[in-house]
Amino acid sequence: MQDFTDSFRFMVDNLSLLLDKTGEHLVLSAAAIAVSLVIAIPLGAWLGHLHRGSFIAINVSNVGRALPSLAVIAIGIGLLGLGFVNVLVALVVLAVPPMITNAYVAVDQVDRDAVEAARGMGMRPSEVFRRVELPLAVPLLFAGIRTAAVYVIASATLAAIAGGGGLGDIIVNQASYGIPGVLAGAIWVAALAVVADVGFGALQRLATPRGLRGEAEAGPVVGGAAVETASAPA
Amino acid sequence: MSLAAVIAQADPVIPDFGGGGSCVRENRTFCWNWFQDNWSGTFQPALIDHIVLTLIAVGIGFAISLAAALFAHRHGWFEGPFTVVSGILYTIPSLALFQILVPITGLTVTTAEIALVSYTLLILFRNILTGLRGVPEDVREAARGMGLTPRQVLLRVELPMALPAIIAGLRVAVVTVISLATVAALIIDQGLGKPIFDSLNAPFNTAFIAAGALAVALALAADGLLVLAQRIASPWAAARAR
């Protein structure tokens, strides 16, 4: 308990250090999320539009969830060496699978009648995709991004091991900062993940077309499990 | 200084360490000979320890979660508090949790297991409870009508019907624990994380890749096995899909 109160004193005394490390943490996470978005969303959404490759699109997240994050980072170090880029690649490897699956399912499950109607109105396939399927897919699409983002922020803690910086630097450095420092770092990472979860939830609501709001809140889809927790711990 | 550190700084005059030769000295991407020479001494024991760590953590976690879920199934108010507590545990970064526990239980396997167990609770509890609640009321009614006692209803009807959801939860719990058990090497000399942490002082590519690949292979194999178990446990689901 003493350590717990000390950790708050640590936060006050080392605010600039924590803010620095939080900045690094966010830069790394944001970069990983951005790269993953560019790779995963177009791929998943396009496969969903074609209703093709469901086996791969759905199972990729099962495989992705099974990947141990530290092991992926270790393989990254072996292939690419220590540093920011290696960690970035490892985080992208972890974030892409759930995004692909959600993007696929989001577009694939769009009401076929709506798509038929759009076609009947004379829209070309690319227009149907852009103006009907994508807007209707937004809630689920964002649910996947949200899951992946929280997962990336939590996993970025491990980046410290591979020289990627971030709040993990404080957590691994018990020798310098003591248990209160470790606790303080952990509390900040957890808080950051919660803030990201809430923030992306708000974005999801904003991005949802008005006609879809008020319908059941879309949760992330991940194949296999009956109940899905938001993301894996790191 | 660890072996890897010695190797990394080795002068060509020093004879081969466990084979590998020039590959090890130049720290190439993957030295197959070095891996073979160190399989029985380093990687095989690490792999076995990793499996044991995982089985113990999931076993204990399952026992606690099952008891909690059965209690919550009967007394609905219990779901909220248990979910909140296990949810908080779930969000603590493992890197931190292992260290926070050290002053309490020391640099021991117990410490590692406490942390690993704590990450299984939320997943298993929710899946078991959802599985139990998913049993249709008609079925329960029919079982009672046939004269089954509450205990028999639970053992012969509710739990078997909840099995797919339970195994789905086990699947997530197992891969999560395999992942976090690599981080446990921060505080104990066990598991596949050990070669990874050992080579951080003097980066040695082969050790990173070998340990990482073994951990990935273990996780995928465990996941695959549980998918098979899921099929066997719920033949009706496969029949329906056909």
Walk me through this protein's architecture:
The complex is a heterodimer of chains A (234) and B (242). With 234 residues, chain A is an all-alpha fold. Helix content of chain A is 76%, strand content 0%. In chain A, helix 6 (112-120) runs antiparallel to helix 7 (125-155). Chain B has a single domain, classed as MetI-like fold. Helices cover 78% and strands 0% of the residues of chain B. Chain B is elongated and about 75 Å long. The N and C termini of chain B lie far apart (59 Å). The chains are: A mainly alpha (234), B mainly alpha (242). Chains A and B meet through helix 3, helix 4, helix 8 and helix 9 of A and helix 5, helix 6, helix 8, helix 9 and helix 10 of B.
Keywords summarizing the entry:
heterodimer; A: 234 residues; mainly alpha; B: MetI-like fold
What is the CATH architecture descriptor of chain B? Orthogonal Bundle
Task: Write down the CATH topology of chain B.
Answer: MetI-like fold
Strand content of chain A: under 5%
Helix content of chain B: over 70%
Q: Most extensive interface: pair and counts?
A: A-B, 45 and 57 residues
Cα(first) to Cα(last) distance of chain A is 24 Å
Low-pLDDT ranges of chain B: none
| Anisotropy-based shape of chain B | elongated
Q: What gyration radius of chain B follows from the Cα positions, in whole Å?
A: 23 Å
Order of helices and strands of chain B: HHHHHHHHHHH
Question: Can you summarize this structure?
Answer:
Chain A is mainly alpha-helical and 234 residues long.
Topology:
The complex is a heterodimer of chains A (234) and B (242).
Chain A: H1 2-13, H2 15-50, H3 54-66, H4 69-80, H5 84-108, H6 112-120, H7 125-155, H8 168-172, H9 174-207
Helix pairs in contact in A: 1-9, 2-5, 2-7, 3-5, 4-5, 5-7, 6-7, 7-9
Chain B: H1 3-8, H2 22-25, H3 32-74, H4 79-91, H5 94-105, H6 109-133, H7 137-145, H8 150-183, H9 193-198, H10 205-233, H11 235-241
Helix pairs in contact in B: 3-6, 3-8, 3-10, 4-6, 5-6, 6-8, 7-8, 8-10
